């Protein structure tokens, strides 16, 4: 009787513990993320966005089913991410998944919402066929909605989702001021840049005149490729802007190159001296890089005319980037007619980070210069290496909150206008937009751009080691089976002998 009472008490205690644990889990939970890149841990930027939500967020995800594992994993990862968003936001994020391939109605609905399918190869009964695959989502807050047209498997889903929620949740976009008045290209000549910036920012041209005042509501300015001289009053305005904690992006080389006239010259507009007062020394020298883009040269051979692509070191291809939110994930940026610079100030007071450098085969050439596209470049003409072409500064002009990004090329993100407009490489645009994001965004959302799943490469090993591992993988299981067989045979033999001895006794 007493044993039964003890059993009942233990059962009640176990039941009470389970109930209490379940009640606690509704309001508080803990998960441990063991992945090296913390891909399942929400960033502080995302948590800040979720905690500040004033209205519910509805996410309608259009994902196809029965896709190859590498692609269908994206659906599972996105669902896990939404579950985490819902929990962290106090259930203000709600979601549902729709399979557009279910019927024509749902497929048409997905496409009308801006989610277009991609074609993927699937294997069915030893045959490879193509199937429409939808991997997108609609995010809605109140009456406002936006589309994530394609969720790239392995890419930063958190950045896509968090930036979309932020875009819809903010009542007024921050303003980015583009300075004019000193020969800068108009905003219309930077179509790719403005298209990317329009997602989170409003763009406002600001003419920098003697009597101009930079509005206090503008915290970030962009000074892009100025060509005309600055006067003292204009430079003082820039100093005052930084001293009040402003953020400034400067894309400027102090040089100008023209392929039509095959010449390059220095631009003495006062900005180089202004930078020198901040211990940023930029000399009027063109950067030469053996890793460069090519120019087309028209040549004649007999009666035929053809275009020959010739490497042109005055068009460096920058491929060395720092591990910094602005540059992480960039592969290659072309910087035509760039210069270099050095910072000689106190790095204990000013935080100085080199963002991008030239290659190991680099040279410098004084301006002015006449370009010779037929010149046969020799290795001795590239004696330098790792020259800075982009850097970030924090704490300039005595204000610890001030920020400045200097990129020593003015036109790397300028498309041009009309018939002269050209499409630039994505990383050229990403470098500019990332710089604006870093300057303007105090939440750290930009760091999510590069948060993606990356395959961990197998360490390089010698051929002999590969052969050893191959044979080890083949013979080791066989050897273990043989050893186990011998052990079992010996064990059964001992048992049999023991039984026989007992019988004779």
Account of the protein in words:
- This protein has 505 residues and is α+β, with helices and mostly antiparallel strands.
- The chain is 31% helix and 27% strand.
- It has helices spanning 2-27, 44-51, 69-88, 104-112, 157-169, 191-197, 232-243, 271-276, 426-440, 463-504; strands at residues 57-63, 93-98, 118-124, 127-133, 135-141, 144-148, 175-180, 202-207, 220-224, 247-251, 255-258, 263-266, 280-282, 285-289, 292-301, 304-318, 320-321, 333-334, 341-343, 351-357, 362-366, 369-370, 388-394, 403-407.
- A hairpin with a 4-residue loop joins strand 11 (255-258) and strand 12.
- Helix 6 (191-197) packs across helix 9 (426-440).
- The two termini are 49 Å apart.
- CATH architectural designation of the largest domain: 3-Layer(aba) Sandwich
Overall outline = extended
The number of domains is 3
The tally of beta strands, per DSSP, is 24
Spatial order of the strands forming the largest sheet: 8-7-9-10-24-23-20-17
How many helices? The count is 10
Structural class: alpha+beta
Q: Average pLDDT across residues?
A: 87
The low-confidence runs, each spanning 5 or more residues with pLDDT under 50, are 453-457
Roughly how much helix do the residues carry, as a percent range?
25-40%
In whole angstroms, how far apart are the ends? 49 Å
């Amino acid at each position: 009787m007493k044993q039964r009472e003890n059993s009942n008490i233990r059962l009640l205690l176990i039941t009470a513990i389970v109930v209490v644990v379940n009640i606690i889990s509704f309001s508080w939970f803990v998960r441990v993320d063991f992945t090296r890149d913390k891909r399942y841990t929400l960033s502080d930027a995302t948590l800040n966005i979720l905690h500040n939500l004033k209205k519910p967020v509805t996410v309608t995800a259009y994902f196809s089913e029965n896709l190859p594992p590498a692609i269908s994993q994206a659906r599972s990862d996105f669902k896990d991410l939404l579950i985490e968003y819902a929990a962290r936001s106090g259930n203000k994020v709600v979601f549902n998944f729709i399979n557009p391939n279910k019927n024509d109605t749902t497929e048409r609905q997905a496409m009308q919402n801006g989610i277009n399918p991609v074609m993927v190869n699937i294997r069915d009964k030893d045959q490879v066929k193509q199937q429409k695959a939808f991997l997108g989502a609609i995010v809605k807050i109140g009456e406002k909605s936006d589309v994530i047209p394609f969720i790239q498997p392995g890419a930063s889903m958190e950045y896509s989702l968090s930036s979309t929620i932020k875009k819809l949740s903010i009542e007024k976009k921050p303003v980015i001021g583009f300075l004019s008045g000193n020969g800068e290209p108009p905003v219309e000549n930077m179509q790719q840049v403005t298209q990317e910036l329009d997602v989170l920012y409003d763009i406002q041209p600001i003419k920098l005149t003697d009597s101009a005042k930079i509005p206090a509501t503008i915290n970030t300015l962009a000074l892009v490729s100025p060509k005309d001289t600055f006067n003292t009053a204009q430079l003082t305005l820039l100093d005052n802007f930084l001293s009040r904690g402003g953020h400034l992006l400067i894309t400027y080389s102090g040089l100008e190159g023209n392929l039509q006239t095959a010449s390059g010259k220095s631009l003495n507009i006062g900005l180089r001296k202004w930078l020198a007062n901040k211990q940023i020394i930029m000399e009027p020298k063109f950067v030469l890089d053996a890793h460069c883009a090519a120019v087309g040269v028209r040549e004649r051979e007999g009666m035929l005319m053809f275009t020959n692509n010739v490497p042109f070191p005055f068009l460096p291809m920058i491929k060395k980037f720092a591990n910094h939110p602005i540059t992480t994930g960039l592969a290659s940026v072309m910087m035509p007619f760039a210069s270099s610079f050095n910072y000689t100030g106190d790095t204990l007071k000013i935080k100085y980070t080199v963002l991008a450098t030239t290659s190991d085969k680099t040279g410098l050439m004084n301006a002015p210069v006449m370009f010779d596209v037929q010149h046969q470049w020799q290795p001795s003409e590239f004696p330098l290496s790792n020259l800075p072409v982009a850097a970030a500064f924090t704490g300039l002009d005595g204000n610890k909150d001030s920020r400045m990004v200097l990129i020593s090329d003015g036109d790397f993100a300028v498309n041009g206008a009309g018939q002269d407009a050209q499409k630039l490489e994505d990383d050229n645009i990403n470098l500019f937009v990332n710089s604006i994001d870093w300057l303007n965004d105090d939440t750290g959302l930009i760091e999510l751009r590069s948060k993606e799943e990356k395959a961990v490469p197998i360490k390089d090993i010698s051929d002999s080691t590969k052969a050893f591992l191959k044979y080890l993988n083949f013979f080791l299981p066989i050897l273990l089976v043989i050893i186990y067989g011998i052990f079992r045979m010996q064990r059964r033999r001992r048992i049999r002998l023991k039984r026989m001895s007992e019988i004779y006794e």
